[in-house]
Amino acid sequence: MHAWPASEVPALPGQGRDLRIHDTATGGLVTLDPGPVARIYVCGITPYDATHIGHAATYNAFDLVQRVWLDTKRQVHYVQNVTDVDDPLLERAQRDDLDWADLAERETALFREDMTALRMLPPKQYIGAVEAIPGIVPLVERLRDAGAAYELEGDIYFSVESDPHFGQVSHLDAAAMRLLSAERGGDPDRPGKKNPLDPMLWMAAREGEPSWDGGSLGRGRPGWHIECVAIALDHLGMGFDVQGGGSDLVFPHHEMGASHAQALTGEFPMAKAYVHAGMVALHGEKMSKSKGNLVFVSQLRREGVDPAAVRLALLAHHYRADWEWTDQVLRDALVRLDRWRAAVSRPDGPPAEALVDEIREALANDLDAPAALAAVDRWVELQRTAGGTDEGAPGVVSRAVDALLGVAL
Ligand code: 5CA
Ligand code: ZN
């Protein structure tokens, strides 16, 4: 699949900082030391509805990771998937009497527009589950042949007991895992499974549902976790720097993915850091397509809200926090955007070098975007009250805000 156009990232004076980031698997901060090409996989959307503010907040976090790395003069190899065939997509298509593939294509196109408007840097590879099937089938065959997978009425399940590291991403106990598995696409109550938590790798063709040739697996479609593992291993290989997503992906998705990869390669972990963004709520509940309590990025754009303000609203919250979207959050961002634009439109101002350092330090410290915004606020306030004589300082601030925060002033 094609991704979306990249906005330009201005180069900044001075030195970028290495990223320290919270790793769910170890429960603490890790200082990443990527090579000249940093490698990141971020779980993409299931395209059955439009991009909401929760999605945007999660992609904002991983966009900051890229920007910190680019600022250290590294290249970034960024891969993202699109879960363009899965139960929720097929259910929505049926409910709305749409062709599932048309629905996926329409919502993916809208996602690209939203990401472009928000200045999110695109992945180098943007891969749909359907186009990944030829790479998924041999992995499932290998897992089955190695005894890490088994068949149940034509479906193929992964055996969690085949992985000695199982549980080392989420550290949850069996009861919590079972609850989350039932909530998030698993089938813990299906009779005949070796372990209730075992996830499906390959689902045999069902009447009225799309299916593909699965070689020795028979016709069917891929499970969710193996989709991301196949795409990540194909394009990034084992031991890449960051696997990212929202905190609702910790279990089962990223736990199972790590297990699949361990069973396939004998190596652990698949990613050096498992990074998870908090959940955005609306009216007190997690924003979710299934509940329908949503604020869409595209709707805000249609209402004429500047995407830069939406981005500032996201940045005003630490990526790991759970937070609530309200009209006030957007109003505050609009006020901030106006203030910042007024401050950088003047030809001179207070010196900007220290501010660039502060933004860098804030982001390198577990992506502390609110601290970065506060630093810019202080410079803007100084500009407003005292001014300054540094020619070009407003230009430096404007470029730093663009390069490091993705906000075009
Ligand atoms: N296709 C899978 C990942 S392989 C999936 O989870 N798709 S999704 O469309 O449901 O979510 C896309 C991304 O947005 C995921 O990283 C998910 O964790 C994140 N996300 C979903 N809802 C919220 C929310 N309310 N707040 C923050 N992030 C969210
Ligand atoms: Zn995923």
Side-by-side strand order of the widest sheet: 5-4-3-10-11
Radius of gyration: 22 Å
Shape by Cα distribution = globular
Residues in β-strands, percent: 15-25%
Q: Give the topology string: H per helix, E per strand.
A: EEEHEHHEHEEHEEHEHEEEHHEHEHHEH
Q: What is the assigned CATH homologous superfamily of the largest domain?
A: HUPs
The residue fraction in helices comes out at 40-55%
Number of helices: 13
Number of domains: 2
CATH architecture of the largest domain: 3-Layer(aba) Sandwich
Bound molecules: 5'-O-(N-(L-cysteinyl)-sulfamoyl)adenosine, zinc ion
Distance between the termini: 31 Å
Number of strands: 16
Spans of 5+ residues with little confidence (pLDDT < 50)? Answer: none
| CATH topology assignment of the largest domain | Rossmann fold
What structural class is derived from the secondary structure elements?
A: alpha/beta
Features:
alpha/beta, Rossmann fold, Four Helix Bundle (Hemerythrin (Met), subunit A), five-stranded parallel sheet, binds 5'-O-(N-(L-cysteinyl)-sulfamoyl)adenosine, binds zinc ion
Could you explain how this protein is built, in words?
With 409 residues, the protein is of the alpha/beta class. It has two domains: 20-295, 3-Layer(aba) Sandwich (Rossmann fold), CATH 3.40.50.620; 298-405, Anticodon-binding domain of a subclass of class I aminoacyl-tRNA synthetases (Four Helix Bundle (Hemerythrin (Met), subunit A), Up-down Bundle). It is 43% helix and 16% strand. The chain is built from 13 helices and 16 strands. The protein has helices spanning 53-71, 87-95, 100-117, 129-145, 174-183, 224-235, 250-265, 297-302, 307-315, 327-344, 353-364, 369-385, 393-405; strands at residues 20-23, 28-31, 37-42, 75-82, 125-128, 149-152, 155-158, 200-204, 220-222, 240-246, 271-277, 280-282, 285-286, 323-324, 348-349, 390-391. A five-stranded parallel sheet has the order 5-4-3-10-11, sandwiched between helices. Strands 6-7-8-9 form a four-stranded antiparallel sheet. A three-stranded mixed sheet has the order 13-12-14, covered by helices on one side. The longest helix is centred in the first third of the chain and has 19 residues, at 53-71. It is globular. The chain binds 5'-O-(N-(L-cysteinyl)-sulfamoyl)adenosine and zinc ion. 5'-O-(N-(L-cysteinyl)-sulfamoyl)adenosine is lined by residues 43-46, 54-55, 57-58, 81, 83, 228, 245-246, 248-249, 277, 279-280, 286-288. Zinc ion (ZN) binds at residues 43, 81, 228, 253.
